[in-house]
Each structure stands twice: as structure tokens, then as C-alpha cells.
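Hi,

Apologies if this is the wrong queue. I'm a grad student, and the batch job for RNA polymerase sigma factor from Microbulbifer halophilus produced an output file that my downstream script rejects. I'm not sure whether the problem is my script or the file. Here is the sequence I used:
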Amino acid sequence: MFHKDFQHLGDEALLEYYHATRNLEAFRQLYVRYKDCLYRYCTQMNFAGAGAILEELWSGLLERPPELRGRLLRTWLFIRTDRLLRNYAGSDPNTPREIPAADNPLLKGLQQLPRIERNILLLHLECQLPLATVADIEKLSLKKCREHFQRGRERLEEILHGPKRQPWRIEEVSV
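Support response: The file is valid. Your script probably expects a header line. Output copied below for reference.
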């Protein structure tokens, strides 16, 4: 098979083909599909550990096929990455951390959010996962996930643009 032959295959078929044949081109195609969004997600959640976490994720995927249990590979990748982030011994995942040379106010604002809100916003907006999948990753109900998402958006908007403006209040002066 040539590179162009892999482009029409789905993620699960590519993974199955790779593990059956050990054809690195099939794995490379999977890697190219997810490397950027996984990297951005990891660096926003734990900048110091992103490299080690992604290395463990990809080397594990190279060595043995994951047990998808009816899930899409995309969902499995983010669930596994989230577990690796939580178990990373390099730092506390709940502590906001600054990304070096982050001149982007949005990135700075994201880093000020609590871990769960930052994670939900990144998974839904950056990684384009549905909130139901994000709820599965976070082990929350869909309702609770929506609440965290909404609260995270409101906090991020307040961080970026300041508090909501209140209408002018004219007090009546009694004569």
C-alpha cells in the first residue's frame, strides 16, 4: 500500500492494519491526524510534562493495540492522554501554570482556569470533541459537564474582557 491508499481508511482500520502488518506508513498516517491537537491539548494542561506524556502515549500505541471497547480511536486517544496527564508525577495538575513566552491573552486566560474547566474547554473547543465524549473522559454526567463548560466560558470571557458591564443605574432623588 502506498501513502495515498491510507488516506481513505478510518482511524480504527488504520490501527488494525498497522498492528497486523507493522507498516509504519499506516501508523504515520494516524500520527499525522492527531499529533497537533494532542500536543496543543497537552501543553495547555501540563506544559512541563507534555513531551513525556505524548511519548508514552505514542510508544504504547506502537507496541500494542488499545482495547477500544466500542469507542472511536479518537476518543480513546484523549481518554488515555487525560489519564496520563492526571498521573504525571512532574507537577500538580490543579495548579495553574504559565506557559513560557505565551503572549497570547487567550492562552494566558486558559491557564488561569481551574483544571476541570480548562480541560473541558480544550477538549470541546480545541480538540472538537462533543460534550458527551468530554463528559465520558472526565467521568461526569453530561449535565455537570455542560455546567463546567458554561462556567469556564464565562470565567474565560471575564478574564479576557473584564467583568460584565452593568447598566447605568439612575437613582431617584426625592424632593
